[in-house]
Design brief:
Blueprint lengths: L1 E4 L8 H5 L3 E5 L8 H4 L5 E4 L1 H11 L14 E5 L3 H11 L29 E4 L1 H11 L17 H12 L3 E4 L29 H13 L4 E2 L11
Amino acid sequence: MAQIRIAFHYAGPYMCIDSHDYVFRLSGAVIKGYEQDVGTRTSFYGFTAFSLTQSILILGTRGFQHVPLGKDVRYLHFLEGTRDYEWLEAMFLNQTLAKTHLSWFRHRPQEAFQDALDVDRYLLLHPDFLRYMKNRFLRSKTLDTAHWRIYRPTTGALLLLTALHLCDKVSAYGFITEGHERFSDHYYDTSWNQLIFYINHDFKLERAVWKRLHDEGIIWLYQRPPSDKTKN
């Protein structure tokens, strides 16, 4: 059984999350200060080079200065483009990203893993698998427009579908659902932050797919009751 945690709006009992056999987290997985809501365990951490560097840059002062650590944590790297291969090269050569598309990130990739970098626990998701998930599960109408080159599923979507291929049962917390506009974008937001629908993602499609998977009993999707209101 797996539980997926992402950084959208969520507040709930940590016991529900930590009681799962495996806990998947991704991107800006801020735990410190939110243990009662999001739990403390991490079994798999999913990311792209861009999502990880952005999370450290934006949330470093909030406690997310490196990936979740632990001898049993596995790291799932989604290879979505050039930046990810540049990240891999710099990481294995222990170099900076100064001459790459991530030149603004002033750290060596290995620093994001501290002493946890172990090639046996660093798993690469094949680009063909990512294309399969995009074309079979999340084939957006954007692919038929002039913006087709920039469309990609969110990192959370890739992680959820990966877990669905690996685990017998999946519970998903923090994913976009009906009524999302009543809540701030992230659970760790200190002030109201509206979720923006950028053209490179199809949040409406993902919302519909997660609801359908839930309704058909394929996953269990945490959904706020209609009467719930944001505390932000």
